[in-house]
Amino acid sequence: MKVSTKGRYALRMMLDLAQHYEEGFISLKDISKRQEISKKYLEQIIIIINKPDFLKTNRGSQGGYKLAKSPSEYTVGDILRLTEGSLSPVDCVDNPSECERYAGCLTLPVWKHLSEIINDYLDSVTLQDILDTQQEEYAINYVI
Amino acid sequence: MKVSTKGRYALRMMLDLAQHYEEGFISLKDISKRQEISKKYLEQIIIIINKPDFLKTNRGSQGGYKLAKSPSEYTVGDILRLTEGSLSPVDCVDNPSECERYAGCLTLPVWKHLSEIINDYLDSVTLQDILDTQQEEYAINYVI
DNA sequence: GCAAATTCCTATCTGTTCAGTAGATAATAT
DNA sequence: ATATTATCTACTGAACAGATAGGAATTTGC
């Protein structure tokens, strides 16, 4: 039940791009430095989220990446579903018919509900939300 | 973000024991047949959840396992935390101080909240709840 | 007290995924 | 031209998932 480094790093990259949204194209070199993540590894991860409706990209000197939309238009769920494949806790939630036991499966409703909760929450949080909370909300959450 | 077979099989074993709660000790052989899971694999998994406050066990002929408490006293969260270790989506939720970046980490609140949601839901569902829903609730969930 | 049934214990194995490194090629601004 | 950047392909080492296998210890029924 863990989110892989791919997903976590992808989210941090997107947040980094959101923080520097106004500065034009941002190179992986800069993101790598700020986030302290191997640039080579970031290369592989950004390939996954480098879709036309997600990122704009430019090669060559002064090139890099920038968000295709405003930070409020990306949800954490969007990003994680790209890198993690699916956020459902068990495969049979996505394709129940592939399991022979699904018809009478007692546990499937639990997994289905869990999947809904996870997806609904992650789809309710945008990059902009995360930027807005910053220190303030962090402190609140930390006390809980 | 997947629950392993260990966790899923453990839940199914516990549900099987709950369904035959009144029948004394239940052997792994029977559970294995009903659940169509290798008995050898079940042996290893049940060792993890075979705690005194969880299961009663008897060796030898006519031996087996039975629940130590009533089905309503086990939550899915209890069972999965034993087999999966922790249900938090990232390690830093459990020990934030181990990450050097945690102080200003923008993503930590998201993971913390997600972790709460997951744990709260799974702790709200007992074995008895699952038995009660059976076909009826299953149909409702399926339509959603 | 013996045989059958059962849990318990330890070791082993195969394939896959995780997390990352490395090197070369293609495009672009200056 | 040159430096800078993204893009592509390949490789690797360690850990984990998901089991299988064999035998020892314990208990019940007879």
Question: How would you describe this structure to a colleague?
Answer:
The structure is a homodimer of 144-residue chains. Chain A is mainly alpha-helical. Chain A has a single domain (5-141), classed as Arc Repressor Mutant, subunit A (Orthogonal Bundle), CATH 1.10.10.10. Chain A is 53% helix and 6% strand. The first copy, chain A, is built from 6 helices and 2 strands. The longest helix of chain A has 17 residues, at 108-124. The first copy, chain A, is elongated. The two termini of chain A are 22 Å apart. The model of chain A is unreliable at 138-144 (pLDDT under 50). The structure holds a DNA duplex (30 and 30 nucleotides).
Main structural class of chain A: mainly alpha
CATH C-level of chain A: Mainly Alpha
Q: Tell me the domain tally of chain A.
A: 1
Query: How far is the first residue's CA from the last residue's CA of chain A?
Result: 22 Å
Amount of beta strand of chain A: 5-15%
> Strand order of the main beta sheet of chain A, please?
1-2
Give me the strand/helix succession of chain A: HHHEEHHH
Mean pLDDT value of chain A: 92
Tell me what the CATH architecture of chain A is.
Orthogonal Bundle
> Helical proportion of chain A?
40-55%
Q: Which oligomeric form is depicted?
A: homodimer
Rg of chain A, please? 18 Å
> What do we call the CATH topology of chain A?
Arc Repressor Mutant, subunit A
Main sheet summary of chain A? 2 strands, antiparallel
**CATH superfamily label of chain A:** Winged helix-like DNA-binding domain superfamily/Winged helix DNA-binding domain
What is the overall silhouette of chain A?
Answer: elongated
